[in-house]
Amino acid sequence: MTEPVLLRNVDMPDGHLLATYEAGGGYQALAKAVHEHTPDEIIDLVKKSNLRGRGGAGFPTGMKWSFVPKRAGKPKYLCCNADEGEPGTFKDRIIMERDPHQLIEGMAISGYAIGAETAYVYIRGEYALAIRRLEQALAEAHAKGYLGKRILGSDFNFTVHIHCGAGAYICGEETAMLDALEGKRAQPRLKPPFPAVEGLYASPTVINNVETLACVPHIVARGPDWFRGIGPDKSPGPKLYCLSGQVRKPGLYELPMGIPLRELVEDHAGGPLPGRKIKAVIPGGVSAPLIPERGLDVGMDFDSLAAAGSMLGSAGVIVIDDSTCMVKVATRIIEFFHHESCGKCTPCREGLNWVVKVLRRVEAGQGGPGDLEQLEALCKGIFGNTFCALGDGAAMGLRAALTHFEHEFVAHIEERRCPFH
Amino acid sequence: MREKIEVAAARYPDQRSAIMPALLIAQKEHGHLPGPVLEEVADILGVERIWVYELATFYTLFRIEPVGVFHLQLCDNVSCMLRGSEDLLRHLEAVLGIKKDGTTLDGLFTLSTVECLGACEMAPVMQVGDDYHGGLDIARIDALLERLRAMTGQAIGADPATTTPPGE
């Protein structure tokens, strides 16, 4: 894959305008979908493409769509999860700021496939420029008949509304996002029922990430075989990688799914800062367990990273070099999860509070001999015992730091200070 | 405010869904969300007051307490921390003469740290109003504070057109 697909327009000065999008063949996939395909055929194309959700969980998108009942007797909804909150992740922001029509076209085709006439984009309230650009793009698309009633002369009606979030990481969890959209505190729901059957306003609902939806027009335009030809067959497609941290060229990179993490960090992002060595890399946002330098040859796809004990998550790749204290990194990560715990279940709410206290004490050189055992016991009490994946993510992240960098934790306790200060 | 809230509410089949957008509108208008404003929002939408209170006290973007003219929101999550956000926080505290979560005596600046702003490619990042300021170091922070101070001499609350929007 040499030519960019998802980032085709982002470096153009007017990439966010309809004229730019149309000049590159934009909205032709929507026309093809509504004129040449039935909704079921679109679902089938997406199934055949093996597209998996880019929000973090990697669930097969076509399969998710096929769970929506055909005759529900209720309106169906499409929700775009644009509440990008996973630390280290900024890909959805850049799509919405610089190529919002790609998302809108993807939403329209997806809405057609599942039989939804109304969609909501749940977007981070902080993303002021993305919100403005998306509003502008929606107005342009309406005026040109790509949204609204009888789209492009078909029987398909579709409207997209923007819903600005107000700051809650937990909204990345799809059922918590539905509660937020319904005007409640964002707390995950018990599943089943799954959103495809009973989601927003107890109606069938599909929730997809921005990047996932942005892939859809390309699959319709170029066919599922093209998509499957990029990267590993079970986890294919063009992929956006967010590079940040202690690396020479932080930024957003579009490369095939499955590219080795080492190639991504050392070749594309320029490797470590001058005079430094890479110590570890977090491959998929802070929920993804870190990988020590010796493990960087792993492929950046859902299955390879899972086999390596981590996860692709949101592909927020955070590079950490040898000047950085891993106890401090672990503490900051758990402070984040503690702050963002929605408070619904005890192991997450209370457990993370406890973990933060122990980690802060260790980092400050005031840890005791039993503290590492205490941390492990707390991870055990949290992992698998929480309502949603937030607690699991925290416990897995801490365990990875404890496993690979135990010597740094021990040094803090034995020397009664942080060796990096 | 009422008119804007009613326009937003028309997007939803259920008025309760409009509480979050209504609170964002109310906060833009009033700067923060004291009790009487929350009650007004509840009355405009015709929803239970407790539904409004519980959102205003759950989501981090909602402010019950007033803030300064410029709310400096420095990201201190991992990617920004790895690029020096701690030094920037210490510097801001020193030059403003306040601690984190404090407001300067002249009411110009409130200093907070926030979780990941989703702009890690330009870490360290700080949000002021609607704008993101990335690639910060001490010199750039000083220049930014200077620009913000100069703006108050002109029109407080106007769109800070001198700053660069994110990604530009």
From TrEMBL, chain A:
Q: Name one GO molecular function term.
A: FMN binding
Q: Which domain of life is it from?
A: Bacteria
Coiled-coil regions listed in the entry:
none
The UniProt keyword set, sorted, is:
4Fe-4S, Flavoprotein, FMN, Iron, Iron-sulfur, Metal-binding, NAD, Oxidoreductase, Quinone, Translocase
Query: Which EC number(s) does the record attach to this protein?
Result: 7.1.1.-
InterPro entries named in the record: NADH-UbQ_OxRdtase_51kDa_CS (IPR001949), NADH-UbQ_OxRdtase_suF (IPR011537), Nuo51_FMN-bd (IPR011538), Nuo51_FMN-bd_sf (IPR037225), Nuop51_4Fe4S-bd (IPR019575), Nuop51_4Fe4S-bd_sf (IPR037207), SLBB_dom (IPR054765)
Q: Which reaction does it catalyse?
A: a quinone + NADH + 5 H(+)(in) = a quinol + NAD(+) + 4 H(+)(out)
| A Pfam family this chain is assigned to | SLBB_2
Pinpoint the NADH-ubiquinone oxidoreductase 51kDa subunit iron-sulphur binding domain residues: 327-372
Q: Which cofactor(s) are needed, names only?
A: [4Fe-4S] cluster; FMN
Question: What PANTHER family does its record include?
Answer: NADH-QUINONE OXIDOREDUCTASE SUBUNIT F
For this chain, the family text in UniProt reads: Belongs to the complex I 51 kDa subunit family.
Protein name per Swiss-Prot or TrEMBL: NADH-quinone oxidoreductase subunit F
